[in-house]
């Protein structure tokens, strides 16, 4: 198809924004007011692409995207630390305009806009894994989904006492009370777990809202909080589905999110595999080094499916590097390839000294040329640069190993929510 001139700017028409999203995702329209449906993406963070040559449907935009103001937990002093992240979401291109560069222009706009707003990192969950790598996002955390049978045994002698001292109770709060309790709990837990993401109140109102059209005959989502010493230390969000086979209950309990330190996860998991009338517990986005694998052994789970989790793009290297701490010293000159960001592309001296990182402009000869996705992948300590080098995706230069030894973390990052 012929290319087209694409201009991206604020989306000034909420109805049109929503209509575009409905067309892209072919969802049933909801009865809730438009403002409620758009909650979690602030009005000044809704963007639309317009094409300047050719007619298009006035009720929709050729393309839309939104940004959630979020916090990302980055590796810091053996734990984590919250830093601002632009959470890219609601990306969609009208079916009549696809594969003609609308997404490409929207992502270029997003990178510029994020930089203008002084945010160094953009993150997203992708609908399809092949989309974002070519635009500079690197796969920063990976996970698996899996299923467990009812009554699964978890063997964790060193954590039994703490898990037993952890009470699990279904939340009785609703509305804003539940939103506040959930945010506070996720902030408390995620700060110690690099790769965690939390949103603002609007985001939590949006994810905790369940419209009648989406719910139909399903059980409303239940929130199970884990409490220790009077403090919320974790939670599991889940829903159950009935099923009967030959007079025997074969229900499925599907977990949507699971937060907590290892002893808390143990307490929550023991409770989740013990609900009446269930035969199967489906777990979401479980990190590759989740303690679960040590408690179970690899064969106790079924339907194990690896997936990409959080994709990270750096939009400002000198601002992003000092935000986290590092495992080893390094001093290399990187020639950064970033076609979307002239302020970013070119040679940087990347230095880590006593755990602190920085990047400064240099005219020195480059030790390695790196695509911007590589630093996004490694930023949380998860995307192994040496493995990418071995796979032929990065240049065969010693500087890649030096960078990786600085960026890597003892445990890979884990991201528990999608957005
Ligand atoms: C963070 C999020 O919100 S994830 C949600 C993403 N949205 C969706 O999946 C909704 C359904 N899909 C769509 O709306 C569109 O097909 C999009 C947004 C995925 C792509 O939009 P388009 O305008 O068609 O993309 P565009 O023409 O800019 O393509 C850019 C490049 O990405 C490639 N590409 C686009 N979509 C895909 C895909 N689904 N899989 C693999 N490659 C893709 C194109 O081939 C093109 O490659 P090239 O530069 O080598 O030629």
Automatic annotation (TrEMBL):
GO MF annotation list: acyltransferase activity
Catalytic residues (UniProt): 132, 419
Signal peptide range in chain numbering: none
EC top class named in words: transferase
Family annotation (Pfam families): Acetyltransf_17, Acetyltransf_9, SCP2_2
EC number(s) from the headed UniProt entry: 2.3.1.-
Keyword tags: Acyltransferase, Transferase
Residue ranges occupied by any Eis-like acetyltransferase domain in the UniProt entry: 200-296
Domain Enhanced intracellular survival protein as annotated: residue spans: 317-413
Family: Belongs to the acetyltransferase Eis family.
Subunit structure: Homohexamer; trimer of dimers.
Protein name: GNAT family N-acetyltransferase
């Amino acid at each position: 198809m012929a290319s087209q001139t694409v201009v991206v700017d604020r989306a000034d028409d909420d109805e049109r924004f929503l209509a575009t999203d409905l067309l892209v995702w072919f969802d049933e329209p909801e009865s809730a007011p438009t403002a409620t449906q758009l909650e979690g993406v602030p009005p000044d963070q809704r963007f639309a692409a317009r094409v300047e040559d050719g007619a298009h449907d006035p009720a929709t935009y050729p393309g839309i995207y939104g940004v959630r103001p979020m916090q990302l937990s980055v590796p810091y002093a053996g734990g984590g630390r919250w830093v601002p992240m632009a959470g890219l979401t609601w990306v969609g291109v009208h079916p009549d305009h696809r594969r003609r560069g609308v997404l490409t222009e929207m992502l270029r706009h997003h990178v510029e806009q994020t930089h203008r707003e002084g945010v160094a990192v953009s993150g997203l969950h992708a609908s399809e894994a092949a989309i974002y790598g070519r635009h500079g996002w690197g796969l920063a955390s990976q996970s698996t989904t899996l299923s467990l049978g009812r009554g699964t045994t978890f063997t964790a002698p060193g954590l039994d006492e703490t898990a037993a001292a952890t009470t699990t109770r279904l939340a009785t709060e609703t509305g804003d009370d539940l939103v506040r309790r959930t945010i506070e709990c996720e902030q408390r837990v995620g700060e110690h777990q690099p790769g965690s993401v939390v949103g603002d109140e609007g985001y939590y109102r949006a994810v905790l809202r369940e419209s009648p059209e989406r719910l139909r005959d399903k059980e409303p989502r239940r929130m199970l909080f884990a409490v220790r010493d009077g403090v919320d230390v974790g939670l599991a969000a889940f829903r159950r589905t009935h099923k009967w086979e030959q007079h025997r209950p074969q229900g499925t309990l599907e977990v949507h999110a699971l937060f907590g330190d290892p002893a808390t996860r143990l307490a929550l998991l023991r409770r989740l595999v013990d609900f009446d009338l269930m035969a199967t517990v489906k777990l979401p986005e479980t990190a590759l080094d989740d303690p679960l694998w040590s408690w179970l052994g690899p064969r106790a789970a079924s339907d194990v499916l690896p997936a990409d989790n959080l994709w990270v793009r750096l939009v400002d290297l000198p601002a992003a590097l000092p935000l986290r701490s590092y495992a080893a010293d390094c001093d290399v000159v990187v020639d950064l390839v970033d076609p979307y960001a002239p302020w970013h592309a070119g040679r940087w001296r990347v230095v880590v000294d006593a755990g602190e990182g920085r990047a400064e402009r240099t005219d020195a000869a480059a030790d390695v040329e790196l695509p911007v996705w590589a630093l996004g992948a490694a930023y949380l300590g998860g995307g192994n640069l040496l493995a990418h080098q071995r796979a032929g995706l990065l240049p065969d230069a010693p500087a890649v190993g030096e960078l990786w030894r600085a960026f890597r973390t003892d445990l890979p990052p884990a991201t528990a929510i999608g957005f």
